[in-house]
Amino acid sequence: MNTNHRILPASALAFVMFFSVAVTGMAFADDGVELSGYGRAKAGALLSDGSLFLAETTLDAKLSWETGDSTLLVDVAVSERLGGSPELELRELYLRYSGDAVELVIGKQQIIWGKSDGVFITDIVSPKDLSRFLVPDFVELRQAVDGVRLGGYAGGHSLELVWLPLFSPGVAPAAGTIWAPVMPYPVTPTITAAALPELSIENGEYFIRYSFMGNAVDLSLMGGWFWNDLPSFAVTGKTMTPGVGITGITLQGEYYRTAAFGYGAAGAIGPLVLRSEGAMQLGKRYQGDFTVYPAGYAEKNSVQYLVGTDFSILGTTFGLQFIQDIILEHDDALVNERFTNTATVMAVRSFAHETLRVEALAYIGLDVPDALLKAQLVWKMTDAMELSGGAWLFFGDSGQFGQYDGNDSVFAGAKISF
């Protein structure tokens, strides 16, 4: 949005939006309309120099209208980031019909699959916003998709079909930001952005999941034929300087078709909750040595799985996970190793009659090694108000997490729900 055309500051625009939605909710309060949402301010600063990299205010209003077997939901948010122009976002807009054995949802919606904490393996339908890597809350990473979801239910069995006629890409960290990843090239490349797939039946995305929920175990099987959420990069040109070598590389971003199928399982054994999740992806593109691969990448099948457990000790809930990525038919010209091993450790504890909550989630790279620790303290002042503060700490010199070692930071936030 051009700031020269800015009409209202974010605070005024937020108030107008809140007032409009609130009036609508009150007007139809007796007709199955419910209004909910939150207002939040959050700021984060780097420990290295104290500079702000995060300063945002958000007002999110969710309006649902239920009549008979149908529900219409609208979720709208307005945000202002780092003093920029306010941005209006339609987060969800869908119509849901719920019958005795069937559910149909049409429109912009979030679709949540998978059983893991902080890791996306079979959760492949909704794309992710990774513009700030894994720093935001887990629920904020998932984006909505435009499509149709049809579910059928019989006893503990369910079958879910998803059709997305319009491709919704994920969001990668922008070049030049502190979250831009290290590029595996000898010089800084010139990149042409990827073109989105054209809207057509052939370019639609298709997903299916079968689930069974029993007394002692939950099982699910899933599959999908879809576009990769984040583009790969094909080498389209190289500049060679005599006596120097490669001095220029041109890359073309490309979205590509891929398929995946996998499983999820969870069950309880005594005080332990055990879970596992895994998927095979076909034809995934991995960056490689462009002297071996002229396009700069190779297509390989890959497997990703996790095993984990949840348990409580003396009032503290813990979650442990081991995740492994395997590139099948691996070769030494690839940037990625054949195996990538990661662990996560989560701990949550509440104090003072559930008004104080301490949360910690650590991602640990077992190969480099490196790590990311996300820790926060949440004070629930009332049922509708909470304050939070914490830190994001990176460890290591390289690897998925260590490359951000200079991004250690602290944050604080306030949230009012309604």
Q: What does this protein look like?
A:
By secondary structure, the chain is mainly beta. The protein is globular.
List the helices and strands and how they pair.
Layout: H1 10-27, E1 33-46, E2 52-67, E3 70-81, E4 87-98, E5 102-109, H2 138-141, E6 145-154, E7 157-164, E8 190-192, E9 205-213, E10 217-227, E11 232-241, E12 245-254, E13 257-269, E14 272-287, E15 297-313, E16 316-327, E17 339-351, E18 356-365, E19 370-380, E20 385-395, H3 399-402, E21 409-417
Parallel strand pairs: 8-12
Antiparallel strand pairs: 1-2, 1-21, 2-3, 3-4, 4-5, 5-6, 6-7, 7-9, 9-10, 10-13, 11-12, 13-14, 14-15, 15-16, 16-17, 17-18, 18-19, 19-20, 20-21
Query: How many distinct beta strands?
Result: 21
Largest sheet: 18 strands, antiparallel, barrel
**What percentage of residues falls in helices of 4 or more residues?**
under 10%
Q: Which structural class best describes the helix and strand composition?
A: mainly beta
Order of helices and strands: HEEEEEHEEEEEEEEEEEEEEEHE
N-end to C-end Cα span: 29 Å
What is the general shape?
Answer: globular
How much of the residues is beta strand, in percent? over 45%
| Rg (C-alpha, Å) | 23 Å
DSSP summary: helix tally = 3
- Residue stretches low in confidence (pLDDT < 50, at least 5 long) are 1-15
The overall pLDDT, averaged over residues, is 91
What is the structure about, briefly put?
With 418 residues, this protein is mainly beta.
